[in-house]
Amino acid sequence: MSDDAPLFVVQQHDARRLHYDVRLEVDGVLKSWAVPRGPSLDPTVKRLAVPTEDHSIEYAEYEGVIADSKYGSGAVIVWDAGVFTNLTEDHGHPVDAAEAIDRGHLKVRLQGVKLHGTWAFTRTGQDWLLVKVRDAFADPRLDLTSAEPRSILSGLTIEEMAATAS
């Protein structure tokens, strides 16, 4: 992984509902989407991705339990992380990630511990869809969120992280 490549992180977060926060480093912040069922490796599956507030880059390494009185309270683990390459183009010309997000379509190649290959984010009204692009890493038979439930940092599951607050 290159030191200058932008980072991505996928945090599993058990707040009001269990979901995965997919975050991409863009212009010095983590642009974020809550993906209720997590990323899919199946190119025929469209996953809802609800935009959330930007987070600081330092938040990419956060694991723990957010206190009950705070927004987003609940357990958080770093489910996956790595770097990404922005592949977004318009008529063969590169489009930077911030502009791609503003336009409503972003295509990225992830190089993580668990996730590899290309995904597309597409705005549909106020929400977005996250879809795996057909490539060598697509696998409709594998549900990575079930097969690989542990944090890449602590090795804990979301349930084990929640139990640390007791």
From TrEMBL:
InterPro entries: LigD_PE_domain. Residues 11-123 form the DNA ligase D 3'-phosphoesterase domain. GO terms for molecular function: ligase activity. Keywords: Ligase. This is DNA ligase D-like protein (Predicted 3'-phosphoesterase).
